[in-house]
């Protein structure tokens, strides 16, 4: 699955101690014609790093996340491979073998998840406080009520929501605030790995930026590792240390953010990169192709770029970036 | 050739809050002109009033103050006037999964507006037009796609069918409200380029509503930045993006993911 020799130079290997090992994992959906959703994926997640997982709908990125959190239900089946969690305390947990009470205790405590469409995954008839405290009463049954209450307030403040909103119901909060509550809930037990599945997709750019800054700040503060799943490659390029590009269930390219952007190797990565017009630079791939250059039309006020200039990711070209 | 002008358009909504009521000004004194062959991008955050402008352009909402002029004349009141107006102004909606009726074939979606706006055409002529439109949005073979229902199409194909539907009455103005935000990234540019091609062929005036500044810049001639119902900045696309004057435009530009900025940070 990986390119053999250049891996090290391209920053494909994790840089520190590993917290999560995904080794040759495959997931099938056993329907009439079995769907191979994830095929022989191997990944290592370093402690405290942000790993971006990019790909389009149906490429298997969410299925992989669900395999790691052991949330897959039939007809999905992990058909092979090993997923191992290496705790800070020095023991390893085989995530494919763990079950029952052990699994219940492990989930959320060590690996937590922010779900896709998190805006709608809060319970609409219970207030935020009860939902946050629920995490503690399930996982820390010895904790006193007053302590739970205090922690719930702290959590909200940590993600930048006023403690006074504890009594609010989800419908009384804006989309961005609901998303923050979901992140607070995922952080409640100070997990070592946080999996975020399209956490900002439904939000507008300004709110998205606030949430991303929040995630980066919390990561620096608490030192958890993040697997950030999205199809928005420019966003990943900005926040990730390393990026894995997934297509049809396989990881087709894995490199550090900079290498992936400046020297993409796989054809598909190039396609994805050229799918996003650059905000400030001149990216040749995106021009209104065929703008009538022969007849000065009414749209001639704008200069038209060369239509056959190929996709180009040379950073030197973008000197006007962020003027 | 159709030109549409909004002149000092304002829209207030009554908001009820228990016993009291208050007024929310969704759009405040907005003027803009949509001309053949030009694309205007309307950018702004959720709730800034972008879609309210689209609704007023389509006569789904009536402005509280100000005028909407079609070729210099006010939009006629009454059914017949609205009918003629809608032959000229059409819309592509955001979500191609919701904007097509699952019970109807793609062909039906496109034939209906043709029949409504060109009642004299024979059935064979309508079918011919449907197939022609499908070919123009590159759904080949047209006859096969006309028979299919929305669930048999991918997201991109559905959005192209929705574009064909919008073009069916041969309008002069097209309003596209986030036409690609629900689509997979690798096909977005294809759909935008298709819209651009069709615009040139038909000499359409396009209002492109989006919160994606990057495509707004590359896809349009002029950009209007909207904040809380007010247009805070307007100008040629490159000017607005590369030299933003208004605080809010800068905020939007800074919020958009920008790999080049990160690259510069990593290098320094």
TrEMBL record, chain A:
One of its GO terms (biological process) is peptide transport. It is a peripheral membrane protein. InterPro entries: AAA+_ATPase, ABC_Ni/Peptide_Import, ABC_transporter-like_ATP-bd, ABC_transporter-like_CS, Oligopep_ABC_C, P-loop_NTPase. SMART domains: AAA (SM00382). Belongs to the ABC transporter superfamily. PANTHER family: DIPEPTIDE TRANSPORT ATP-BINDING PROTEIN DPPD (PTHR43297:SF2), OLIGOPEPTIDE TRANSPORT ATP-BINDING PROTEIN APPD (PTHR43297). This is Oligopeptide transport ATP-binding protein AmiE.
Automatic annotation (TrEMBL), chain B:
Pfam families: ABC_tran (PF00005). Keywords: ATP-binding, Nucleotide-binding, Transport. The keyword ATP-binding applies. GO terms for biological process: transmembrane transport. CDD domains: ABC_NikE_OppD_transporters. InterPro entries: AAA+_ATPase, ABC_transp_ATP-bind, ABC_transporter-like_ATP-bd, ABC_transporter-like_CS, P-loop_NTPase. Residues 4-253 form the ABC transporter domain. One of its GO terms (molecular function) is ATP binding. It comes from the Bacteria. This is Sulfate/thiosulfate import ATP-binding protein CysA.
């Amino acid at each position: 699955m990986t390119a053999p020799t250049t891996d090290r130079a391209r920053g494909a290997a994790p840089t520190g101690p590993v917290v999560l090992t995904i080794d040759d994992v495959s997931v099938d959906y056993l329907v009439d014609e079995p769907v191979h959703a994830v095929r022989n994926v191997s990944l290592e997640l370093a402690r405290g790093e942000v790993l971006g997982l990019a790909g389009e709908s149906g490429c298997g990125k969410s299925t992989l996340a669900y395999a790691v959190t052991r949330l897959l239900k039939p007809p999905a089946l992990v058909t092979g491979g090993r997923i191992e969690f290496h705790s800070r305390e020095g023991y390893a947990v085989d995530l494919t073998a763990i079950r029952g009470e052990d699994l219940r205790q492990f989930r959320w405590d060590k690996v937590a998840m922010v779900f896709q469409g998190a805006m709608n995954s809060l319970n609409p008839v219970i207030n935020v406080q009860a939902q946050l405290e629920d995490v503690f009463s399930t996982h820390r049954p010895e904790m006193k009520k007053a302590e739970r209450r205090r922690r719930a307030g702290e959590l909200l403040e940590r993600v930048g929501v006023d403690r006074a909103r504890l009594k609010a119901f989800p419908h009384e909060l804006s989309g961005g605030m609901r998303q923050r509550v979901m992140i607070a809930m995922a952080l409640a037990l100070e997990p070592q790995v946080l999996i975020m599945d399209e956490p900002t997709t439904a939000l507008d750019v300004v709110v998205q930026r606030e949430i991303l800054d929040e995630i980066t700040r919390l990561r620096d503060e608490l030192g958890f590792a993040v697997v950030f799943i999205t199809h928005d490659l420019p966003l990943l390029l900005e926040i990730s240390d390393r990026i894995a590009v997934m297509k049809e269930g396989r990881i087709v390219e894995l490199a550090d953010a900079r290498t992936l952007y400046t020297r993409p190797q796989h054809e598909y990565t190039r396609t994805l990169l050229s799918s996003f017009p650059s905000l400030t630079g001149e990216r040749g791939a995106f021009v209104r192709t065929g703008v009538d250059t022969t007849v000065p039309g009414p749209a001639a006020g704008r200069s038209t770029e060369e239509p056959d200039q190929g996709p180009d990711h040379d950073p030197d070209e973008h000197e006007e970036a962020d003027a | 050739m159709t030109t549409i002008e909004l002149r000092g358009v304002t829209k207030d909504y009554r908001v009820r809050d228990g016993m009291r009521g208050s007024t929310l000004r969704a759009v405040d004194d907005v003027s803009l002109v949509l001309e053949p062959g030009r694309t205007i991008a309307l950018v702004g955050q959720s709730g800034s009033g972008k879609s309210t402008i689209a609704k007023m352009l389509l006569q789904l909402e009536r402005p509280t103050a100000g005028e909407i002029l079609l070729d210099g004349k006010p939009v006629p009141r009454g059914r017949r006037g609205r009918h003629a107006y809608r032959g000229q102004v059409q819309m592509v909606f955001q979500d191609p999964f919701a904007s097509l009726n699952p019970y109807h074939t793609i062909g039906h979606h496109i034939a209906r507006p043709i029949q409504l706006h060109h009642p004299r055409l024979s059935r064979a002529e309508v079918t011919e037009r449907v197939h022609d439109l499908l070919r123009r949005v590159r759904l080949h073979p047209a006859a096969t796609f006309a028979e299919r229902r929305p669930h048999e199409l991918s997201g991109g194909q559905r959005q192209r069918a929705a574009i064909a539907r919008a073009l069916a009455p041969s309008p002069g103005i097209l309003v596209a409200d986030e036409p690609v935000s629900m689509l997979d990234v690798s096909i977005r540019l294809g759909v935008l380029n298709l819209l651009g091609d069709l615009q040139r062929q038909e000499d359409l005036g396009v209002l492109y509503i989006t919160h994606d500044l990057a495509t707004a810049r590359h896809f349009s001639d002029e950009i209007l930045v909207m904040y809380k119902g007010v247009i805070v900045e307007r100008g040629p696309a490159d000017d607005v993006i590369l030299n933003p004057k208004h605080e809010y435009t800068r905020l939007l530009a800074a919020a958009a993911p920008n790999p080049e900025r990160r690259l510069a940070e990593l290098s320094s």
